[in-house]
Amino acid sequence: MRDGFDLIRDAYDVPGLDEHERAVLVRLAFMAKDGKAWPSIAHLVEKLGKSERTVQRAIRRLVDAGHITQRQRRHDTAIYTVHPVLTDPKPVSATGVSVTPVDPTPVTNASKTRPTDTLIAKNNQSSSKTSSSPKRRARSSPQLPQIDVKLPDWVPVEAWEGWLEMRRTKGAKPTGRALALSIEQLRKLADAGHPPGDVLDQSTRELWLGLFPIKDSQNEQSRSTRRSPANHHSVGDAVLAAHDRVDFG
């Protein structure tokens, strides 16, 4: 069973989806654990910013296309098994029978290459000429992180997702390397006594792209107390008292 970023990459690479279907499939892949996710319809509506009818229609189409399996539980919750199909769906005739088109072009290994694999090959061979045109490259799927980063169990998923969504709205989509460094930073902050969930929520709330120690209001108050005029006045009184004790005889 594929999981983690492999499953998300497969969801991005599925051909023939509209923007609503792809958004639902990628969201389910992002939330999946061992290939299964169980968000409510209300959760998907909130996170994707789409109407309930749009989300439900996208789920039905994904089930019909074989990209997910839905097992209803109760009310509006269900368990979704995510298994994106990376081949083009077969067209269906008016009688409901799947039709396999005949393609006279010989099938080669290059034609079976996924869009993300093609992008990687082009980056590695930047000095050589390629036969693909710029327009064809523009239609390729979004380039995804190539570093396999798995979210540790001690990082709250909701807080992590909220921080990533905030970054994307600011146009700062993280790379795979950036995600790995962010998890390492969370580990260091956790060792220093800063809960990962609070650190992520703080950065989301303050619109910070980075991760920083939790603000300590008590420390701020103690520092302001040490700088207050009352303390300076006390020091001045001590100096005057010492001066009065000096015998200038």
Helix run count = 11
Oligomer: single chain
Low-confidence stretches: 227-235
Shape verdict: globular
Strand order of the largest sheet: 1-3-2
- How much helix, percentage-wise, in residues? 40-55%
> Can you tell me the number of structural domains?
2
Order of helices and strands: HHEHHEEHHHHHHH
Structure summary, number of beta strands: 3
Q: In angstroms, what separates the terminal alpha carbons? A: 94 Å
Summed over residues and divided by their number, the pLDDT gives a mean of: 74
* Biggest beta-sheet profile: 3 strands, antiparallel
Q: Structural class, please?
A: mainly alpha
The value of Rg in angstroms is 28 Å
Strand content: under 5%
List its traits.
single chain, 249 residues, mainly alpha, Arc Repressor Mutant, subunit A, 2 domains, 3-stranded antiparallel sheet
Describe the model:
The protein is mainly α. The chain has 2 domains: 1-86, Arc Repressor Mutant, subunit A; 145-237, no CATH class. It is 51% helix and 5% strand. The protein has helices at 4-13, 19-31, 41-48, 52-65, 115-124, 134-138, 157-169, 176-191, 196-206, 217-226, 229-244; strands at 36-37, 68-72, 78-82. Strands 1-3-2 form a 3-stranded antiparallel beta sheet. It is globular, with a radius of gyration of 28 Å.
